Every structure is written in C-alpha cells, then in structure tokens.
Amino acid sequence: MRSFPVAWRWTLAALIVIVALAVAIWPRGTRDTPRDTARPTSAPSAAVSQDMRAAAALADCPQAAPGAVARGPLAGITLNCLANGRPVELAAALAGRPALLNLWTYWCPPCAEELPALQRYAARPGAVAVLTVHSDPDEAKALARLTDLGVRLPGVQDARAEVRNAAGAPAVQPVSVLVRADGSIAKVVVRPFRDTDDIAATVAAELGVAA
C-alpha cells in the first residue's frame, strides 16, 4: 500500500516539470518577430504647412488635359502633389506623353545622389516628363530633403506605395518606371542612374525619345 503514494508523487512531479517546460518554450506572439532595420519606421507626418511647400518651391504636377483617358497599370491611382497637396490622377495626367517616374524616399542615400541628375536631365530639350514619387509616409521629411538638395522637380506623395505595386517594382530605392505615351510600362529600372547621360541613354533605348 505504501508504494502507491510514492509512485503518485513521482508522477505528479513529472507532470509539473512537463508543464514548466511547455510554458518556457511557448511562443510569445508577434512581439519577438524581427523587423527590417535597414528601413526606418515612419509614421504618417502631421499636416504639411504651406510654408514648407513654399520653401521647397517645387514645380507643379502635370494635370490631365480635357478629354484625357487614363490607361495602363497606373489608371485609378490618385496621389497628392508635393507642391501644393492637390490630388493628381496619375494616368490621366500623363496620358499622351512618355514619362519617367522616379520612386524614392527621404532616407535613401542613392536617391539623394540621383535626384539632381534627374533634374538636369529634365531641363534638356526633348526630355520626357519626369515625376518623382515619394514612397514613404513622411511627406514633411520629403519636402525638407528636396529643399536641402535644391531639387524642384514635380512630385507626388505615395505613402502606400501604390505606384510600386501597380508597376510590379521591387521594394528597393531608387526605382525608375518608364511609361509610354499610351500608359503602358516600357521598363522598370531597378538601379540608380549614374549621371544625366545614363538617364538620357536609358530613356532613348526604352522609350525612343532622345534628349
């Protein structure tokens, strides 16, 4: 009779050890999930003041011509213009003309090196329309970065990466999307341009427009 309580006690001790081990290794939810530290986590910026927009002195965004028809993967995307905060229906605004859309973020060093070259290219006679697409929620920092760089190109704010998704571009910066006059995408350039001549040569090869 005495052996039963001893066996019971050993069984109970074994169960306690098993439960303790299970608690120790049980997953703790998503708190320990690693995140990408290469990209800063940006919350949407507060309302951007008109003083900030005025300091950036950006060119106004293209607007749709009367009767313009939006076609291609960018149809249905409406983004706010960095110059004034007004909405721009992207495909309609670019309809009928080839364009270079440069996807960038304020925290990307290669983007900062490339943007001035894009501005110099855009000033060339015969250049296609160049539109910057800021792909981070913090619009205020985008305007500050452009002000520091002295880049006045027209641009839009794309906090949800709608252009990237529509173009099927990878989540890297910078990326340039070359768009034909009919709204179709000719090329997604997944690299920074070396200089203005590199931009011109790539545009000529993919869009057939020399500048």
UniProtKB/TrEMBL annotation:
<dbReference type="GO" id="GO:0030313">
    <property type="term" value="C:cell envelope"/>
</dbReference>
<keyword id="KW-0413">Isomerase</keyword>
<dbReference type="InterPro" id="IPR036249">
    <property type="entry name" value="Thioredoxin-like_sf"/>
</dbReference>
<keyword id="KW-0812">Transmembrane</keyword>
<keyword id="KW-0472">Membrane</keyword>
<protein>
    <submittedName>
        <fullName>Thiol-disulfide isomerase/thioredoxin</fullName>
    </submittedName>
</protein>
<keyword id="KW-1015">Disulfide bond</keyword>
<dbReference type="Pfam" id="PF08534">
    <property type="entry name" value="Redoxin"/>
</dbReference>
<keyword id="KW-1133">Transmembrane helix</keyword>
<dbReference type="GO" id="GO:0017004">
    <property type="term" value="P:cytochrome complex assembly"/>
</dbReference>
<keyword id="KW-0735">Signal-anchor</keyword>
<keyword id="KW-0676">Redox-active center</keyword>
<dbReference type="GO" id="GO:0016853">
    <property type="term" value="F:isomerase activity"/>
</dbReference>
<dbReference type="InterPro" id="IPR017937">
    <property type="entry name" value="Thioredoxin_CS"/>
</dbReference>
<dbReference type="InterPro" id="IPR013740">
    <property type="entry name" value="Redoxin"/>
</dbReference>
<dbReference type="InterPro" id="IPR013766">
    <property type="entry name" value="Thioredoxin_domain"/>
</dbReference>
<dbReference type="GO" id="GO:0016491">
    <property type="term" value="F:oxidoreductase activity"/>
</dbReference>
<feature type="transmembrane region" description="Helical">
    <location>
        <begin position="6"/>
        <end position="26"/>
    </location>
</feature>
<dbReference type="InterPro" id="IPR050553">
    <property type="entry name" value="Thioredoxin_ResA/DsbE_sf"/>
</dbReference>
<keyword id="KW-0201">Cytochrome c-type biogenesis</keyword>
<feature type="domain" description="Thioredoxin">
    <location>
        <begin position="68"/>
        <end position="208"/>
    </location>
</feature>
